[in-house]
């Protein structure tokens, strides 16, 4: 597994992510945004971060554009979490997708959110060759999620 991590810049952390999370907590999804809550693998405390929920073929996915970050490590340990949109909470289980399965998912993700996350994919975009998407696949964890409860 690659240990590639693209740290977000000051603007992303202090302005963009906070604005998206604020809107999402109030029930306004920005292009599929949700607030992901997952238990910390060491502390057991809930950790939150804004994410983009990708839907392909009726299945839901979470893609980590910045690489193997804290929420991906926590997701592997916890096996699931919660997605929040306003007062709606969806509990889910998560299964990590193998690199060979990621090509169409990364293509769909980049097609929708390239303007927001394209910089983290080293020049690979939605129109790139399958081989290029497969090359960057190990750097971008993808989880297939299944909603188990909605409240």
Automatic annotation (TrEMBL):
Gene3D superfamilies found in the cross-reference section: Electron Transport, Fmn-binding Protein, Chain A (2.30.110.10)
InterPro entries per record: F420H2_quin_Rdtase, Split_barrel_FMN-bd
One GO molecular-function entry: oxidoreductase activity
Pfam family name, one: F420H2_quin_red
Superkingdom of the organism of origin: Bacteria
Protein name: Nitroreductase
Source species: Streptomyces aurantiogriseus
């Amino acid at each position: 597994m690659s240990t590639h991590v693209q740290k977000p810049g000051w603007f992303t952390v202090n302005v963009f992510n906070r604005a998206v999370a604020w809107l999402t907590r109030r029930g306004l999804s920005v292009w599929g945004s949700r607030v992901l809550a997952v238990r910390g693998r060491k502390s057991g405390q809930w950790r939150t971060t804004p994410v983009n929920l990708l839907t392909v073929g009726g299945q839901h996915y979470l893609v980590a554009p910045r690489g193997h970050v804290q929420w991906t490590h926590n997701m592997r340990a916890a096996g699931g979490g919660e997605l929040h949109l306003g007062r709606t909470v969806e509990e889910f289980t998560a299964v990590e997708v193998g690199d060979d399965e990621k090509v169409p998912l990364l293509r769909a993700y980049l097609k929708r959110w390239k303007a927001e996350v394209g910089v983290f994919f080293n020049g690979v975009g939605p129109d790139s060759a399958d081989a290029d998407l497969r090359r960057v696949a190990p750097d971008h964890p993808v989880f297939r999620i299944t909603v188990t409860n909605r409240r």
